[in-house]
Amino acid sequence: MAHDREPTTAAPRPHPGGTDSPLSAAMVGRDRKLMAIVASAIRHREVILAHQPVVQARNPGQVAFYEAFARVLDDTGRPIPARDFMPRIAATELGRQLDCLALDLGLRLLAERPEIRLSINMSARSIGYRDWSTTLERHLGADDSLGERLMLEIGESSAMAVPELVLDFMDQMQPHGIAFALDNFGTGPTILRHLRDFLFDAVKIDGEFIRGIHANLDNHALVRTLIAIAREFDMLVIAEHVEEQADADFLVAARVDCLQGYLYGAPKLIPVAAANTVRARRA
Question: What is the pTM of this model?
Answer without folding.
Answer: 0.84
